[in-house]
Fold each of these.
Amino acid sequence: MKTLLNIIWVLFAGLALWFGYVIAGVLLCIPIITIPFAIASFRIANYALWPFGRTVVDKPDAGAGSFVGNVIWIVLAGWWLAIGHIVTAIPLFVSIIGIPLGIANIKLIPLSLLPLGKSIVPSDLAFPAYQRGPAA
């Protein structure tokens, strides 16, 4: 099911979002000081292209540096990428079949605004304690 959702996602929203994140990453590579933001943009581009089956978790060691970086990120690229998510979510919500994809698109907005201090991991590794079953 994840593969089918990802294929539909790529066709209707993922490719456009991937392109937006890649363009932001390339532009952020121009000034050398913003290369860490470009790396974050490329990391999210990969996630925005094929999101189902993966999830975003907070890094436990993220501190004040990621907060300051996120503020700079919002000014440089975050607002534009969040608007891209909204623009691609609207047509998904208009079609009945695309409503789950539109919801997934809206869930990506916090990551597009605050990417630093987050990790993208496979869904089955995000919460392993819940998947072990009852304690023996």
Amino acid sequence: MDIRPYSERDADAVFEVHRRAFGGRTDEARIVQRLHDADEAVVSLVAVIDGRVVGHVLFSRVTVADCDVAIELVGLAPVGVLPENQNDGVGSSLIRQGLAACRAAGVDAVVVLGDPEYYSRFGFERASEYGLGNEYGADEAFMVEPLHGGALDGVDGVVTYRPEFEQAES
């Protein structure tokens, strides 16, 4: 398996990965399209096996309301893997390499809304322990991973995702 940065030529394959990974729903695939169209993808990686895109992960900027501390914070969403390639480590590899790419890009911390049991394997912890809430009202499932020591010092507030996440499917 090869993991590399997303390019525009991957758009159709990535759309299909997310559509199939999410049971035929296209919400996540359209979010990916909108974030790329708006040039808001901080890190976007594809997993390729035998020349075929089988997985994708995206990290985009998020903000913390009423926060006076300068921080580069991104959200991990979505991550998708073709059903026939799930449970083979593709998603885990995408997340690990995505976190490393975020760290290299100067990102301070990454948030995710997802299964605590799954994401804790990558170092994510409950965000409320760091004083971070979210616009969806989730607690246990809203997690953060600081990418360096002191990354979240003095940061607290409600994390807001990009407007591309709010747009209804069309």
